[in-house]
Design brief:
Its main location: virion. It holds the Pfam family Phage_capsid. This is Phage capsid family protein. This protein has a domain at 143-238 and 287-294: hypothetical protein PF0899 fold (2-Layer Sandwich), CATH 3.30.2320. The chain is an alpha+beta fold. Strand 12 (256-259) and strand 13 (262-265) form a beta hairpin. The protein contains six helices and 15 strands.
């Protein structure tokens, strides 16, 4: 694609739908949450989703018998958007090549989105901005992968299915995928089943395995000890990822930005700063249908 028309006189730029989609497509390729959760469009104030309890089975009745009445449990969940932002700085010399500039901004923005989404909603490595209308899977029920790999993977399956869930995706870090690739059943056969028709590395217990570079969280020792997180498995039909509109970018060459503890003048250093902002949200309708996988 031709470079987006951003220059030193720009004060604010709204990306076209095509340009916004380019960034979201690149982010989706890297973010497991964005791949697996159901994407919905959000108004700025959020949106309410009605929920129903488990469906009771119908009953056999005679020709003139009274028909049974089922009163389902009704509830609702609010999905609210929150803003994430990133400032990308480049030299004015670099910015002269607009095609290179656009590709750099696109790559930086896409990776920033994917990284923040997965580290927030999968592992909690980045703290969520709020618990009001936003969930994470960091506090889902846990299963530790020990030496009995097959039995441990079956525990994951059982914990999801016993709560009415359908295991349809493994969101695994590289460390978690190493565990899966080395896992065998009771007869020593690899647990993973290759799937040549998919972009995933294969299936485990009938569900595809997706890789997230940011689906890992190191173990924490001491008073607030927590195990190493390798990934999350679950029924992803229960997860909703909401997006408000497109991505906005503002450009400036006279701003002062904070880099670490240092205030940097873009004008003094012949630099351009691009502020990319996007709003999104994430909720899980039934968190008991997910399992956090730990070491």
């Amino acid at each position: 694609m031709a470079g987006i028309d951003l220059n030193r006189t720009s004060t604010g730029v709204k990306l076209t739908p095509e340009q916004s989609d380019e960034i979201w497509q690149d982010a989706t390729k890297s973010s497991v949450v964005m791949q697996l959760a159901r994407r919905v469009s959000l108004p700025g104030s959020g949106i309410s989703f009605d929920t129903l309890g488990e469906a009771a089975p119908a009953k056999w009745v005679g020709e003139t018998d009274e028909k049974p009445v089922i009163n389902p449990t009704v509830g609702s969940r609010i999905l609210k958007p929150y803003k994430m932002a990133r400032i990308i700085t480049v030299s004015t010399e670099f910015a002269r090549d607009k095609a290179t500039l656009w590709n750099a901004i696109k790559a930086q923005a896409a990776e920033s989105v994917a990284k923040t989404v997965d580290m927030t909603f999968l592992t909690g490595a980045i703290a969520a901005p709020s618990t009001d209308g936003m969930d994470t899977l960091a506090d889902a029920q846990a299963v530790s992968l020990g030496k009995s790999a097959y039995a441990d993977f079956m525990k994951v399956y059982e914990k999801i299915s016993v709560n009415g869930g359908n295991l349809n995706g493994w969101a695994m870090s590289p460390e978690g995928q190493a565990k899966i690739l080395g896992a065998t059943d009771a007869n020593g056969r690899p647990l993973i089943t290759p799937d040549v028709s998919s972009t995933t590395i294969g299936n485990v217990l009938g569900a595809p395995v997706h890789k997230s570079p940011w689906g890992h969280k190191a173990a924490v020792s001491g008073g607030s000890a927590a195990p190493e997180i390798l990934g999350v498995a679950g029924d992803w039909s229960q997860a909703l990822f909401g997006v408000v509109g497109g991505i906005t970018i503002k450009a400036s060459d006279i701003a002062t930005v904070k880099v670490g503890e240092e205030m940097v003048s873009l004008w003094q250093r012949n630099m351009l700063g691009f502020l990319a902002e996007f709003e999104c949200g994430f909720i899980v309708k039934n968190k008991t249908r997910f399992v956090k996988i730990t070491a």
